[in-house]
Amino acid sequence: MSAQACRPGCGACCIAPSISSPIPGMPDGKPAGVRCAQLDEKNRCKIFGQPERPAVCGSLPPSLEMCGDSAAQAMSRLTWLEQATSVTP
What we know:
Blueprint: H1 55-58, H2 64-67, H3 71-85
């Protein structure tokens, strides 16, 4: 995977994937496709770098393969990854 800088104003990684660990304001985590309560109006994480931020968020570095060339591509790719890796009972 090729590393890249996070795209300002994107927020796809805070919307598309599910997060099973607690997030401030979302004690049960969040389902896929739901905007994180910690995403501000400019699509920036309000708890970035803080201990309350779920570990999974810090372990998801931006990459060209994941984020593509635009916020729309990032949302599409992350939604696909979420669906491809989700476990259905």
